[in-house]
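Re: the 288-residue chain
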Amino acid sequence: MLLLTVIYKDNISNYIIEKIAFSKKIYVENPNEYTIDYDFSYLEKTDNFIAQNKQQVLNILYTILNSGVNNAYFYCNYDGCKDDVKYLTDPYRMININNFVHPYNNYQKITLNINSFNKVTIEIKKLYTTDDIDNINAKIDEIISQSITDEMTTKEKITVFHDYIIDNTVYDSEYLNSNSYDIDNPSNKAIGPLFFGKALCGGYTDAMAIFLNKLNIPNYRISSKNHVWNLVYLDGNWYHLDLTWDDPVTENNTNIRLDNFLLITTEQLEQLNTGYHVYDKSIYLEAK
C-alpha cells in the first residue's frame, strides 16, 4: 500500500487539487482600504488562485500583497510551478512586485511554504504599523488642507507636495555612511521625511506614493540596483518623479530644491544619465 502511494503520489496530489481545491472558490478575504484598484502591464489583480502558468503565479502574488492581508494561500497546478514560485519570490523580484503595491501594504518580511500537494501558504509582516499609518495620514491630510486647493491642476498639487518634502527634508547621508541597513529606520519609510526631516530614497518615494494614492493618481515605484523613485500617470502619459535627486546633498549643508526630476519623460531621464536610474523595462513597462 505504501509503495502504491509513492508510485502514484503525483496522481494523488493532482486528484486532491482537482477534487478538493477546485471544488471551492479560493479568494483573498477582506482586502483593506489601501488596495490598488487598477492594473498594470506587468501584473494585474486576479480571482484565480489555482495557477496554471508563471504569469498567473505573478498575478496571485501581486493580488495577495495588494490586498493587504497577513495570510493567504493558493495552489500550483502545472509542471514547474514550484520553480516559478521560487524564482518570483527571490528577494529582488519580490521588491519589484512590492513596488506596485500601496506602501501601507508593503511587506517587511514574507514567508512562503509549499507542501506536497502544491499548496503555497504565505505569511506577511507589514512594513508600516497601524500607528505609522495613522500618523502619516494625519500629517499628509494637514499638508493638503494647508497648501492644496481644488482649483489647482493635478501637476500643481504634485509640485506643492514635492516642494514641501524637499524644503523640510535632508538626505540622511549620516545613516547611509554608517554602512548599516535597517529597514525599520525612519529614513527608509515615509515617517522619515514627514516627522524627522531626514530620508533616504525609500522614504522620499513612499511619502510621495502615499500622497499620490490619497489623490487617486495612478502611480508605482521603480527600483534600480541601488535606487527607487516614483512613476506617475498624468494627463494620459507616464512620468518619472524623483524627490531624492531633486534634494541634493551640498558641501555646506545648505538646502537646495531642484526640479530636474519633477515629472519628466523616460527620454529626459535617460538624457540626464545619472547611472542610478537604469531599470528593468520588461517589468516597468509603462516607463519604456
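Residues 1-9 have pLDDT under 50 and may be disordered.
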